[in-house]
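Researcher: Let's do a round of design. I'm pasting the structure tokens now; please hold your answer until I've finished.
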């Protein structure tokens, strides 16, 4: 698809745009999840402690990835709004500001995370898994810039509807990681550190490919030549208004994971963390279509908002939710029916075989999580697209940090339902919080219609 057709697509029928944007994004996320699952599967062969260590590091890694994705979401929103408003110069400048932000943020957080890694892991209760966790984390966090820049560059491609190259870049990371994992972990005998090196090297190759397209081939709709950069504090503010809340959402997810891991340790020991880590890999895998649709909504909503097109904004939100629920029902059934087979992926060695029944039970309960989240995700992504990142953050804060953690605690320790209560509380809290976000989004769209009708040429509803 040419760059002009990309722009025509994201400014046209929102239903077609969401599908065309979402499918490549789903493929990208599928590949990402495949290498995440591959990481867990290969690391599981090292034993329960190694797999639990990945569980403790995952929340911190979510923060790491969230830095790039947060800045990327801010850039995606601002670029899309400027494209919708037919202001390419500002779109170019917004992209360049996002790259500058990725450099600044990477330097600051690399230093902070490397210095405080040990006390953070001790606070999280890593216990006898801390050596595994440190071996993995020092490498991953030492190359923070690679992951932050990768998130920003990928978002720049998505913002102009160029999903093909965004997908190819992610495919490079995923495929190389899957290939390199067993080589570094077992053949070179690097152990859990080998999984970290495989991830870093794979992400670096992806960054090199995207950089070539941006500054070597130079055939984007956007022109990211240094001459187009003109520092603007307003652009920084506009980007950060989405980037900071989006990044904080990943922090919230990480804090929730820490809280859940802590409750699991109290309820059943570190083995429960290994079980939850494995089962959540499957949950994350089934959420790929929802996240793909949500990412598409961010771009389409941004363009519609920038063009003051109420109809497209309303359609993008409602259509994405209907599509999301249809897909979630099918995936939830698959998870429940094949829970034992899925659990077997993480129990292929003598060291991890005993985890299979518990993982299968966890997957059965958490299959409901996939059904509880579509309306919340789409509402949050719509808010990010229109530049209201704070609204999206509030929804996530309510859903994840407050409701999910509170219900998990109540169901487990107050009602005495044990580990299954923690899983059930996470599911129920997710659904309630998402419902609040959905109602808020509908109210916002209705207000946007009133403003559009007052200030611009009326559109048919």
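Researcher: That's everything. Go ahead.
Model: Designed sequence:
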């Amino acid at each position: 698809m040419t760059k002009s057709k990309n722009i025509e697509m994201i400014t046209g029928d929102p239903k077609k745009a969401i599908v065309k944007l979402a499918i490549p994004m789903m493929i990208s996320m599928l590949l990402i999840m495949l290498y995440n699952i591959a990481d867990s599967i290969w690391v599981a062969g090292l034993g329960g402690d190694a797999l639990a260590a990945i569980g403790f590091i995952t929340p911190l890694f979510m923060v790491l990835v969230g830095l790039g994705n947060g800045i990327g979401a801010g850039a995606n929103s601002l670029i899309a709004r400027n494209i919708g408003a037919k202001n390419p110069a500002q779109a170019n400048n917004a992209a360049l500001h996002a790259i500058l932000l990725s450099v600044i943020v990477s330097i600051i957080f690399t230093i902070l995370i490397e210095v405080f890694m040990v006390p953070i892991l001790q606070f999280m209760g890593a216990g006898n898994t801390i050596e595994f966790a440190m071996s993995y984390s020092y490498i991953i966090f030492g190359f923070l810039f690679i992951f932050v820049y990768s998130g920003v560059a990928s978002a720049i491609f998505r913002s102009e509807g160029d999903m093909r190259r965004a997908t190819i870049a992610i495919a490079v990371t995923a495929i190389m990681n899957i290939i390199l994992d067993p080589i570094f972990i077992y053949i070179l005998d690097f152990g859990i550190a080998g999984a970290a090196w495989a991830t870093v090297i794979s992400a670096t190759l992806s960054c090199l490919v995207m950089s070539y397209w941006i500054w070597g081939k130079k055939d984007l709709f956007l022109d990211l030549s240094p001459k187009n950069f003109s520092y603007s504090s307003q652009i920084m503010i506009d980007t950060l208004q989405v980037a900071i809340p989006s990044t904080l959402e990943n922090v919230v997810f990480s804090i929730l994971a820490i809280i859940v891991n802590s409750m699991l340790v109290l309820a059943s020991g570190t083995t429960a963390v290994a079980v939850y880590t494995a089962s959540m890999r499957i949950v994350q895998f089934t959420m790929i279509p929802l996240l793909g649709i949500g990412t598409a909504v961010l771009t389409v909503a941004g363009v519609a908002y920038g063009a003051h097109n109420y109809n497209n904004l309303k359609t993008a939100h409602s259509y994405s939710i209907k599509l999301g629920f249809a897909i979630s029902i099918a995936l939830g059934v698959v998870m429940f029916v094949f829970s034992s087979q899925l659990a077997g992926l993480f129990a292929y060695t003598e060291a991890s075989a005993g985890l299979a029944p518990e993982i299968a039970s966890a997957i059965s309960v958490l299959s409901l999580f996939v059904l509880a989240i579509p309306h919340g995700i789409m509402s949050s992504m719509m808010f990010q697209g229109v530049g209201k990142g704070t609204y999206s953050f509030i929804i996530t804060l309510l859903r994840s940090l407050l409701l999910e953690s509170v219900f998990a605690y109540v169901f487990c320790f107050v009602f005495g339902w044990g580990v299954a209560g923690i899983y059930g509380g996470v599911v129920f809290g997710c659904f309630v919080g998402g419902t609040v976000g959905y109602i808020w989004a509908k109210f916002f769209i209705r207000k946007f219609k009133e403003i559009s009708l007052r200030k611009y040429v009326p559109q048919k509803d």
